[in-house]
Amino acid sequence: MVGVVVFAQPRGGASGGGEGAEEIAEEVDLTEPLQLGTTVPEALRVEVVRRHPHDTDAFTQGLLWHDGELYESTGLEGRSTLRRTSVEGEVRQRVDVPGDFFAEGLARVGDRLFQLTWQSGKAFVYDRETFEKVAEHDYEGEGWGLCFDGEHLVMSDGSDRLAFRDPESFEVVREVRVTRIGRPLRRLNELECVDGAVYANVWQSDDIVRIDPATGAVTATIDASGLLTRAERRRTDVLNGIAWLPDRERFLITGKLWPWAFEVELVAR
After folding, report:
1. Fewer CB within 10 Å of terminal CB in the chain, N or C?
2. Contact 51, 263 (CB under 8 A)
3. Which has the closest alpha carbon to 228: 245, 240, 243, 210?
4. In 3D, which of 108, 211, 104 has the Cα closest to residue 162?
């Protein structure tokens, strides 16, 4: 079989479809030739160690863990927030984002928190302790996911590109195209930088991928399906939110409006 596969998906960027969403189509050209010398990504799955309560009103866009607490960016216009919570879901600190912004990915650089917006071309910078906004940056295009690799902020925009930005100026230093077995991998969403790799949700799927930031090659595909019951799934939106727990060497993953955040280990399929 050759040609084009069309995936129907609701319009709404990294939101996973909001109110009044309409369907659009993404085309994946299966006739595009594979690059020689590509390797098949490692096949992994998540194994749940424990689950923790998660706010079912939180439309999770970005998630990170620091010093025993979670920091979360939630989306939707008029409902976007930046919040600090316990791993058990207790909201300890919160600031509302102005109502005309749809908040997106979140990253920590030292004592600053960087929060993207979806289509407004604004990145807000907050003091981590006080949540006071201390700066903002402009950028072109959409903002989806964000993480910090120790040198650069790594940013996704829903395409197959990752942009590496200077954390002081927010200027793009370089870009990389992400490929899986030689083909472009689009809809890269929430990001987490861990041990020299970038982990990304693939929007509207239950896949998380591990990316080599030097080449853009996907080195592992992680199946995170089946975390919610069928009844829970009907009341929620897509998988989104990856936080690395360094002291436990595990990931915490959740989704938009999910009742649980799952502490997981990665094991072979």
Report:
1. N
2. yes
3. 240
4. 211
Residues of the chain with pLDDT under 70: 1-38
Structure tokens at 189: 């969403």
Amino acid identity of residue 181, one-letter, is I
Instruction: Give residue 88's pLDDT.
Output: 86
CB 94 within 8 A of CB 57: no
pLDDT in tens, 156-186: 999 999 999 999 999 999 999 999 999 999 9
**63: its two tokens:** 């998630």
At which residue do the structure tokens 């390797």 appear?
Answer: 39
State the pTM of this model: 0.86
What DSSP state is assigned to residue 233?
H
CB 50 within 8 A of CB 263: yes
Give the other-Cβ count within 10 Å of 144's Cβ: 28
Please say whether the beta carbons of 241 and 254 come within 8 A: yes
Convert the pLDDT of each residue in 150-163 to its tens digit. Answer: 999 999 999 999 99
- For residue 190, the SS3 value is strand
